[in-house]
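Hi team,

Filling in the usual template for the complex we talked about on Friday. All components are listed, including any nucleic acid strands or ligand strings, so the model treats them as one assembly.

SUBMITTER: L.P.
PURPOSE: interface mapping
COMPONENTS: two
RESIDUES: 578
SEQUENCES:
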Amino acid sequence: MTAVEWQIVGFTICVAALSTVVILPVGLALAWALARGNWRGKSVVETFVTLPLVLPPVATGLILLKTFGKHGLGGFLQDKFHFQVIFTWRAVLLALSVMSLPLLVRSARSAFEEVNPRLEQIARTLGAGGWRVFFTISVPLAARGIVGGMLLAFARALGEFGATIMVAGYMPGKTATISLAIFENVQLGQDAHACRLLGVSVVLAFIAVWSSEFFLRRRKTS
Amino acid sequence: MSLLLKNISLPLAHFTLEVNVEMNRRVTAIFGPSGAGKTSLLDLIAGLRTARSAFIQLDDDVLADTAKNFSVATHRRGIGYVPQDLALFPHLSVRQNLFYGCKSSAASGTPFSFEHIVKVLEIMPLVSRGVTELSGGEKQRVALARALLASPRLLLLDEPLASLDTPLKEQIIPCLARIRDEFQIPMLCVTHDRFVALTLAEEIIVLMRGKVLQTGPVSEVFARPANAEVARFVGVETIQPGRITSVADGLATVQVGDAMLVALAPTAESRDVFVCIRGEEVILQRDTAAATSVRNRFAARILSLRPEGPLVRVELDAGFPLFALVTRPAGAELALREGETISALVKASAIHLVPR
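RESULT (copied from the run log):
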């Protein structure tokens, strides 16, 4: 492994981990609202959350590019705050977050649905407000499903390609992730580089998916 | 304690729960069959459900008034709730469960202090255990203690003995009685168990298909059910349709099947009635000639004998189907046998007539 390859691997792991952390509060809030709430527009939100799973990743990437490009929200952020998103590491983070969010939401939602609502209700009769019930009853009881979902989301982020290439491009040392580097190396005929990164990619994905299965399977048996 | 439930209307799957009652006693039992809306009523009082219309007032505090779109949040109502499945938090230890709702005001020396509650409910040895290591009776006591540690001003109990077998019931009943006596806390207890209602409650509300059919002191509801449906549910053994043929001196003569019997005249004017006779009010006698003050004496044929614990249920044909409950020694002394004829005696005051 070369220093550049190690840098790419490190960068990918860091951004994938960061994206998992970033989507955690939003993902948990959405999962809880979808599991417990019975509100107008729930099915629409549900569909929107699932869309990145079924849309071609490049299509999602194009939506992000248009939204955060210089004629969209990105232009406003650039002008007002000199905050650039597109073609920076932030764009990688954005693409990874959007693409992995549905996996976290789906796992966490099903974990919340398995928590007996009576436990949350009784906690309220014991004087606990909404937040306390959420953090002391709902989240701990759904923890395995949530952790499983986080690991799945992390695994998905590690392998993300289509949306990332659209919004971040391939810039070594700046936006290059393992997937983008494999593609670029194959394009340039540097198969040895590509294969080394492929090996790392397989190992990382295996560990993440295996751990996720471990947590999700334990949840089912417990 | 005064709990006022006014204009309650809550649509449920097969009927609408409609309640208008005021409860003033220390322990009130909501008595009714499964699916009568009892748990939904407790949920409403606790604030876990929202009714189409409701006015709920506990002492001087209005807890919910849908007319004014007002409702106190569940966690601010100060109402303890022990549900049928107990809902102990499985990821917490017994100690953590107990302290979950523990008020800082529940200091040592007060009735709701940890030490006092743990002592009264005898759960000290359980405190360091996990919830999954507890037996059914232990779980019940821990759930009761957890609710009490939150210093509630009203305790709701949903079928407190439903999931327990008889020996465990016998363990829990004294616990509930101790809670009633030691903590002076008003309790509202949902049950379909006559034993619970009779041993714990002072007042009873009979709820069936979402409607209150009768309220009153326990002894009165059990002795004088308001209608045949309540009579059947409170376990009156003999409920037969009859017709009042005459009324004189406060006594009614009623034709039931082929028999005529004398009962206290009902206040309602209806002549078509149900005759309700509790099995333990029927006296069986071999010596038919003996003089007695009992107004109703029937020559009855024994149709069947069925042992029920320390008692024997005797099914009789007295011109109408009549059931008697006698103790096993009494049955043995009388040498009761199926097919034999025996005298069945019922006092006029033991016959309760309800309008048909």
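MY TAKE: Chain A has one domain: 3-221. The domain at 3-221 of chain A is CATH 1.10.3720.10 (MetI-like fold).

Thanks, L.
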